[in-house]
Every structure is written in structure tokens, then in C-alpha cells.
What we know:
By secondary structure, this protein is α+β, with helices and mostly antiparallel strands. It has four domains: 2-56, no CATH class; 60-162, 2-Layer Sandwich (Tetrahydropterin Synthase, Chain A); 167-225; 236-297, no CATH class. The protein has helices at residues 2-16, 94-97, 102-118, 123-128, 130-145, 164-206, 210-223, 236-255, 258-269, 275-288, and strands at 17-20, 24-30, 33-38, 41-44, 50-56, 60-70, 76-87, 150-161.
Amino acid sequence: MFRGIVVVISFIILTMVRIVNQYERKIVLTLWKFSRVLTPWLNFIIPILEKTISVDIREKAVDVPSQEAMTKDNIACWVNAVIYYKIREDQVEKSVLNVRNLDYAMTQFALTTMRNIVGQFELDELLAKREEASEKIMAIVDTKSDSWGVQVLSVELKDINIPDDLKRTIWKQAEAEREKRAKIITSEWELASAENLKKAAVMLAEAPGALHLRTLQSINDLSSDESNTTVWMIPMEVLEAIKWFASKVDDSSAASHPIVHRASKRSVSADVVTDENVWDESMKVITHIPKYKSSKEKPL
């Protein structure tokens, strides 16, 4: 008899004891009505009359499944996100009394909110301003979940997937933009180089002997090269002298031509020279001058 009484008392004590961990709270329902919240430590309840429900108050990460959404510029994209939230310690009872399945409710409400927020952005804005879209989603979800005793810590957009053909278009746009920047930088470099070359040319022209020294330096640089290329350096004065001599030879050969000489004599000996006579003589000279295939056939 005594043993039976001890067993019954021990069983009642065990059913009365509730151990609460540091990371959780227990809600007590007395006669199916909320009465209090049990904090971490040993707690006692009235068996049969009271019931406890455990609530985890640690931070949770809920994955929002990928879904198709339409942007403001009517482009379909697939977006998924993740929500970080936790239950407030002073409102633990709301997460049990006001919502049936908290994780499922948070996921579904985040899906709807994310679809609505994505529709407020164009595709370029959505790709460039992910943080702004995430903050808007978090503000709306946090406002709605206040009645559930939930504090939304952050909402992050994980992936934004777009069609492959649109990806190729975006790549071409980015490539064209980079080529534009490269050409602008190259043109600026060429402009600066041209200005420096102009200044260098002015300095070499003003300083006597500077161009000769620069030529010698170039020859020295070429001589250090181990290639078999032979470079002949000709001064500019020699080229100018050759051009002057060639022009004198052309003038003397044209003056010694018999037709041109005869036309010049006629024009000098004529008493009255009119425009029509000059024109006729000029046309005759032009039509009778022979054409030479190369400079070797010209009469000297």
C-alpha cells in the first residue's frame, strides 16, 4: 500500500515539473486558456488542469521559394529570398494564439509581398537596388507579423533569374558600354600624347642641334637591338635638296620642249594678244605634249 502511494506521488510530481531551456519559453494554458509563460528553470504546473506549449525564441531562417514575378517594365523574372526573424520574448503567447503555423504563414506572406515589391521596380533598378527592395519587403512583413509577436531581422533577395536571351542582350549592352569607355580613355590618351609631342617638337625646333642629338640617340637605341635589320639614316636637309633639284630638272625639261618653246616665241612676238589666242595656243601645247610612262623616258 505504501509503495503504491509513493509511486502515485512520484508520478504526480513528475507530471508537475517542467524544465525550460534557455533558448525556449513555455506557454501555460489553464483549462484551455492562456495563463502565464514559463521562463528557463524548474517550473511546476497543475497536472490535468494545465497544459504547456514550447516556443523556440532563437533566430530562424526561412527560405522563400523561387517564384515568377513581373517587373514594372513587363519582364518576367524568377526571384527567391530568405527571411531572418525571431519571436519576441515579451510576446511569446502571440506566436501560438494568433497564428496556427508561424513558419508557413511567414513564407506565404513573404511570397505575396515579394511579388508586389518586384512589380514596383524595373529590371535594371531591381538588379542594381536589391537592398532597397529587400528593405521594402522587410518593412511590410515586419508590420504584418507584429500581431504574431515576430521581429523580422532582415530579408535578403538571393537570386534574380531572367531568361537567357535577355541575359545575352544585357551582356551585349555591358560590352558596348565597356568598349565606349575604352575608346574614350584611348582618345584622351592620344590627345595628351599629341600635346606632348607638339611641345617636344617645338622644343627641338628652338634648340639648335637638339634634333641631331635625338637622331643619334635613336641610332644608339637601334644599335642595341640584336636583329638583322639595317637602318640608313638620311638627314632632312639632303631630302630637301633632292626635292629642289628634281623641281629644277622638271622646269628645265618643260622649257626646252620644242612645242612649248615655239608657243612662247609666238606669244612674245605677237603684237596683240587676246584671251582666245592664249587659250588656243595653250590647248595646242597641251594636246601635243607626249605622255611618258616613267621618269627615265623624259628628255633631259
